[in-house]
Amino acid sequence: MKQYRYILLLSFILLVAVLKAQHNGYFVHTVDKGQTLYSISRMYQKNMQDIIALNPGCDVKLSIGQELRIPQTPKTASDNTRNNIEPRYHTIQAGETLYRLSKIYGITVLDICEANPGLNISNFRAGEVIQIPATKGGANIAIEAINNEKQEQEEPEEQPTQQIIRTTHKVVKGETFYGIARKYGITEAELRSANPEAASKSKLKRRTILNIPYPTKKVEARKSPVIEITNKEIFNKLEEIKDSIEATTAHKAIKVAVILPFLLDSYAPNEQNRMIEYYQGFLIAVEKLKRLGYSYDIRTYDSGPESKNLSWLTTSGELDNVDLIIGALYPKHNKQLAKFANEKEIPLVIPFTSKEDEIFSNPMVYVVNTLQSYFFSEVIDHFTYKFPNANVIFVSDSTKSNKKEFISALIEGLNRKAIPHTTIDIEIIKSAAASRATIEETDSCGIKTFKALLSNEKENIFIPLSSSAITLSSIVPPLIILKSDTINIPEFKLFGYPEWQIYANDMQAQLYEADTYFYASFFSHYSLPEAAKFQSEFTNWYDRNLQNIYPRYGMLGYDTGYFFLLAANKYGKEMHNNIGNITFTPIQTGFKFERVNNWGGMVNKKIYFIHYTPYYTIEKIDFDK
C-alpha cells in the first residue's frame, strides 16, 4: 500500500513538473515528416531564433521524431479574454484525458475540441500538441451529460409513478432525444420513457410527435462522484451533441463566393486569361453538379490587382452568409480573406499559391497547391515504396543544380531505408554512349566504368541534379543509346521532376524510350481519356482550346470546383471532418487533404508518379488507391 502511494505521489510530482514547464517555460513538439524549422515557427507563431536558442543545432539538422522545446508565454490575466494574442499550447502526457485537461485549465472539453478541430479519439495521444483556448466560462455540456447518465444509473429505482405529460414536441430534421430533452429541462431517460414507440427505433424521424413529461421527482440518494471520464465517452457524446445542433445540409442551395483578379480595370493579359480560364472550368463543374440535383448560388467578385485592398468586400456584409469562399491569387488578398474566413467560420479554398502562412494557425484554410516541404516528404515516401530495391545514381552536369533541397531530403530518405546511392558526372554516360560500338569494355571508352555503376539485382535509377531542359536533353539521348545497345548492360530507368511535363511535347518519344518517371502534384495529357473528354467539352462550351500552359487552368478550375462544391453540399460545416470521403476522379489535380496540426488548416498532399513506359503509354500512378 505504501509503495502504491509512493508511485502515485511520484506521478503527481512529474505531472506538476511537466505542467509547470508548459505553463511557464516551454512545451515539447515532436517533428513530423514534411515539417521545417520555418513551418514549426509559423505553426506556433514564434521567432525561429527563440526556438534555436532552446534547441541548439536545430537550424543545421532537423529529423523526423526529434523533440523540440518551443518557448511558452506564461499565463497572464489577459489569457481570459477571447482576444488573447499569445495562445497557449499543451503537449499531451501519457495517461492524460480531455476530462483532466478541462479541469487543469478551467475550460470545457467543447472549448478544447473547438480550438483543435483536428483532434479525435485516434490522435489524442502522448506527444501530440494541442492549443489551449481562453476560458469561456460556458457549461461543460459533454461532461455534464455523461455525469448525469452515470448518476442516473447509480440511483436506486423509484417506486413506479405515472408520468404526467405537460406538452408535445414535433421533431425537426437533425434533432435527437438528447437535444430535445435538454431543451425541456428533463433527462433523456424521462423523454424516452414517455415515448416508448419512438425510442424503440434506431433513428428519430422528422415530424414525429413526442410527449414531453414533467420532470420525475427522484428519491434523494447519495451519489458516488465520477472519478474519471474516458476520452471515448467524451468524443462519442460530443458527436451526439453535434448531431443535435447541426442538421444535414445535403441538397440545400450552397452560397459560394469566387474571388479572383479578373483585372477588368487594368492591363495584365496573361494573369487575366489564366483567371478567366480557371473560372470557365469552374462553371463546367457547377453545371455538372446541378444536373445531379445540387443547387448553388454563385457570387463572383473581381479582386483586382495585388495593390488593391479587399476590405471593401470583407466589411460590406456581402460575404457574411456564404458557405464557401474560393480565391484569391495574391498572398496579400489571401491573408485578408483568411482572417475574415476564420472570424466567420467559412471554409476558404486557396487554389494557386502554396506560400500561405495562414495554414499553420487557421482551421478554415484549404491550400490546394502542396507546400514544398510536405511535397518532398510525400515524394520520398512514394519513391521508397515504389522502388524499395533501388540502386540510385545521381547525375551532375555543367548546369547548376536547382533541386538541392529535394536531393538532400531524398538522400536522407534513402539512408533511412538503407537504399544505396552514388553521384557521377554526366560525362561518364556520354563517354560510354559515344564509344560503346567501337571498343569492347575498356576503361578508355567508359563502358566498363558505366557498367560498374549498375546492379544486376537492383532497380538502377538515374536521377539528374537539375530539372532544366538543358539537363534533360543532355542525359536522355546517351541513355537511349545505351539501352538499345547489344552489349550486356543491366536495365535502368530515369527519374525526374514535374517541370519535365512542360518539355514532354518536344521529347515525348525519347521519354518513352528512356523508361522515364517523374513526380507531380498535377498532370494531364490528351492520351488520358478524362483529359481528352474535358478538352472536347471546353471547346464546345467556349469555342476555343485550353491554353498550352502548366497547370491547365481550365482543368484546375473544374477539379477544385467540383471537389469543394460537392464537399460543401454533402457535409456543410462538417466538411473538414469528411473531406477524405469525397469520391471524385479529377482531370489534372488530385486531392488528399490533411490538417497540418490540430488547430491549423488543411494542406493537399496528393502526389502522382508519371511513367512514360517503353511501350509508348503513359501511366499515372496514384499511391492512394
Output the CATH class name of the largest domain. Answer: Alpha Beta
Helix content: 40-55%
β-sheet strand percentage: 15-25%
Overall SS class: alpha/beta
Overall strand count: 20
CATH architecture of the largest domain: 3-Layer(aba) Sandwich
pLDDT average, as an integer? 84
CATH superfamily of the largest domain: Response regulator
Domain unit count:
4
Query: How would you sum up the major sheet?
Result: 7 strands, mixed
What would you say this structure looks like, in words?
- The chain has 625 residues and is of the alpha/beta class.
- The protein has 4 domains: 120 residues, Membrane-bound Lytic Murein Transglycosylase D, Chain A (Roll), CATH 3.10.350.10; 104 residues, no CATH class; 158 residues, Rossmann fold, CATH 3.40.50; 147 residues, Response regulator (Rossmann fold, 3-Layer(aba) Sandwich), CATH 3.40.50.
- Helices cover 40% and strands 16% of the residues.
- β19 and β20 form a beta hairpin.
- The longest helix has 23 residues.
- It is globular, with a radius of gyration of 30 Å.
- The protein starts with a helix and ends with a strand.
